[in-house]
User: Fold this.
Amino acid sequence: MTAAPDDGTIPSYQYAVTRLTAENKDLRRQLAEMSAAHRVENRKLRAQLAEGVTPELTELRRETRHWRERAITAEGRLASIRRSVA
Assistant:
């Protein structure tokens, strides 16, 4: 491109429109690249989070199940003791 005339004429406006259109196109391209990179990073972080949290949740569920079973057993024993005392 040649230097833009700065005299308020039609060629100067055409030059400005061409320049701004090119800048807009470049900015849109950059935005698309950044958005794609963000989506990839977001997927990676979600996967890492899921991997890190899943073992903890599995352990908590196992522990909850264990204590629930112990509570049921204790309630059964308590009922048995009450029946034998009564």
Notes: The two ends are 103 Å apart (CA to CA). The chain is about 90% helix and 0% strand. The helical segments are 10-85. The longest helix spans residues 10-85.
